[in-house]
Specification:
Elements: H1 4-20, E1 33-35, E2 46-50, E3 61-65, H2 72-78, H3 81-88, E4 91-96, H4 120-136, E5 143-148, H5 150-161, E6 168-172, H6 183-190, H7 198-208, E7 217-223, H8 232-244, E8 253-257, E9 260-266, E10 273-280, E11 287-289, E12 304-306, H9 311-318, H10 330-333, H11 356-364, H12 370-382
Parallel strand pairs: 3-4, 3-5, 5-6, 6-7, 7-10, 11-12
Antiparallel strand pairs: 1-2, 2-4, 8-9, 9-10
Helix pairs in contact: 7-8
């Protein structure tokens, strides 16, 4: 467990990194609107909402949770969720933390008073979801939640404490539910902490909500070179939900894709992917982006990392939210893309040829230290060779 001095230094480093990193290139008009009275707000959070013009009736809702030091709208924009809201036809609720609650603007995912059903920040976010559904006539069966870092850990909280509310979720560089009950334990978990048995992790999810609650599907994304939240947190998150679903700890399949590996857990006797784990080779702490392609989304900046793959687009596909030309009139306008589980890039029936960057990394794998590999992989991605 890190010392108090190490813990303090980590918090200071996180703040300095955000302050000194590239500013999120978002200078347009404010697109999110604040709702001051959305119901009970025991967590004292701000509710910000984006509803695309002409949104079809009974549209989905995506809840987007920012990371430490971030602001809700800047994060939702930079991760590409506002662009995807226009393309896919869904509303966005972006809760925002305040410095009064947490000096670093982190969601308090590790505090029992904020990470328990019916209490604190978890209850506030649940109230926002209910308000948005009522106000905008959204589909309560298609509500999703995602977040980065502390927002990713808070995503774990929301999926565990309100599983009946969410059809699926996505944790990006976050942590499993219930692995910390104070700041010191949270920092220990981020550093790698102690090992947890999958059965114990799964039981924590099962105890968080009323017995018999349906469990959502889950997508997990993490960088292999993340030193802020160790990659083991991603593996533990996937194993936690596999255990909660009654699945084996080991995935049913693991695919080597361009610049990443993807492991999947399928439902018993089904082809449906209940859990996926994506590990991005050489990526640090942040949201994986692909901004350069013609259909790229998002904006690179602090904790928003060009990776050659857009986690947000892939997550939307995993949630079965197809991209359309416009968000209006669902069935006629929709041009569905293949669901992530059926996309040819997964290599199930159509193996993907290795890129030049992949070939270079494969040649170096046994001869170059892991940290150096991470630097080389990052350079290859920047040059768009991976």
């Amino acid at each position: 467990m890190p010392s108090l001095g190490e813990s303090t230094e980590l918090l200071a480093r996180l703040r300095r990194r955000a302050q000194n990193g590239p500013a999120t290139p978002y200078a347009g008009e404010t697109r999110l609107k604040e709702t001051l009275d959305f119901g009970d707000n025991p967590g004292a959070l701000r509710m910000l909402t984006y509803v695309p013009e002409g949104l079809a009736p009974s549209a989905p809702l995506v809840v987007v949770l920012h990371g430490c030091t971030q602001r809700a709208e800047a994060h939702a924009h930079a991760a590409g969720w506002l662009t995807l809201a226009d393309r896919c036809g869904f509303a966005v609720v972006a809760p925002e933390q305040t410095q009064a609650n947490n000096p670093n603007r982190c969601f308090n995912w590790f505090q029992p008073e904020d990470a328990t059903r019916g209490r604190g920040e978890a209850a506030s976010i649940r109230a926002m979801v209910a308000h948005a559904i009522r106000t905008h006539g959204l589909d309560s069966r298609r509500v999703f939640v995602t977040g980065l870092s502390a927002g990713g850990a808070m995503t774990s909280v929301m999926l565990a404490t309100y599983p009946e509310v969410f059809a699926a979720g996505a944790v990006v560089a976050g942590l499993p539910y219930g692995v910390a009950a104070n700041v010191q334990e949270a920092l220990a978990a981020m550093h790698g902490g102690r090992a947890h048995a999958a059965a114990d992790l799964g039981a924590r999810v099962r105890r968080a909500a009323p017995a018999g609650s349906p469990l959502p599907r889950l997508s997990v994304w993490h960088g292999s070179a993340d030193t802020t939240v160790k990659p083991r947190a991603a593996t533990d998150t996937a194993r936690q939900w596999a255990a909660a679903h009654g699945l084996a700890s080991e995935p049913d399949e693991t695919h080597a894709l361009s610049g990443r590996t993807r492991a999947v857990w399928r439902g018993p006797g089904s082809d449906e992917v209940l859990i996926e784990l994506n590990l991005i080779q050489g990526l640090g702490h942040g949201t994986p982006l692909a901004t350069g392609a013609p259909e790229g989304v998002g904006a690179a900046g602090a904790f928003m990392l060009e990776a050659g793959v857009s986690s947000s687009r892939e997550i939307a596909r995993f949630w079965d939210l197809p991209e359309t030309a416009s968000p209006v009139a669902a069935s006629e306008a929709a041009t569905p893309r293949p669901a992530l589980a059926d996309a040819p890039e997964l290599g199930r029936r159509h193996p993907v040829p290795a890129s030049l960057g992949d070939q270079v990394m494969a040649a170096l794998e046994k001869h170059v230290p892991g940290d150096v590999q991470g630097v080389i992989a990052s350079a290859l991605r920047t040059a768009r060779l991976m």
